[in-house]
Design brief:
8 strands, about 35% helix, 2 domains
């Protein structure tokens, strides 16, 4: 099983690292791709720093971690809005192993808005990280919106569909209280107050040193 974890990583923080390490410990991934996007097509505002800078920060953040972690910069190299269906089709040309896409439950409820969502559901399995007790959209409601009517729960955290060839697993992993939006705000405040000795809680020191060196997130 190959894990796929996409995002803007603007910047990467300990919440990302904790989730990645928890998944690698809990599940038998042979490889775990981090997929930084060039630009999220569902967002009107682009990332705060360049693609090259985000890529460098992400490489710094995962240095020395599990050897199964690999950055796939394919979406960045295309230099255009990133659609998951295109990335998955590209990865299908490289791997015959099952692909499992990891997302939060907040994003899961929006999957019907993704490009070629119904086709995407036939190409990958899903691992959904529970971030709240509130269910925004029942899984089978989403499946029906995508024209998939044979889904059924194997157990309370495992939904199978497409004649049991595909699955969605719901994972309880305690998230750390960090977000990239929060990190950007705190970084701007540190620059503004010239308090640059220590990183904000949630940013690795190695990442912080690179942010300082390149004066990232000082404006905007």
């Amino acid at each position: 099983m190959i894990g796929l974890f996409g995002g803007t990583f603007d910047p990467p923080h300990l919440g990302h690292i904790h989730l990645i390490q928890s998944l690698l410990k809990q599940f038998n991934f042979s490889k775990f791709y981090l997929i930084p996007n060039y630009r999220n097509p569902l967002k009107t505002k682009g990332p705060a720093v360049t693609a090259e800078e985000r890529l460098l920060l992400l490489r710094t953040a995962i240095k020395g971690l599990d050897s199964r972690i690999e950055i796939l910069d394919w979406e960045m190299r295309k230099q255009e809005p990133s659609f998951t269906i295109d990335t998955v089709k590209y990865l299908r040309t490289l791997h015959s192993e099952p692909l499992t896409f990891i997302i939060g439950d907040d994003i899961f409820s929006q999957l019907s808005e993704w490009k070629s969502a119904a086709e995407l559901f036939q190409l990958v399995d899903w691992m959904v990280i529970k971030r709240s007790e509130e269910i925004v959209l029942e899984p089978q409601q989403l499946m029906h919106k995508l024209g998939i009517f044979d889904s059924h729960f194997v157990d309370k955290n495992h939904l199978a569909y497409s004649q049991d060839q595909r699955s969605i697993r719901f994972c309880d992993i305690k998230a750390l209280p960090f977000s990239s939006t929060q990190m950007r705000s705190e970084l701007r405040e540190l620059w503004k107050k010239n308090k640059l000795d220590d990183p904000p809680q949630g940013i690795q020191r190695s990442v912080w040193l690179l942010i300082k060196e390149k004066r990232l997130y000082s404006v905007g």
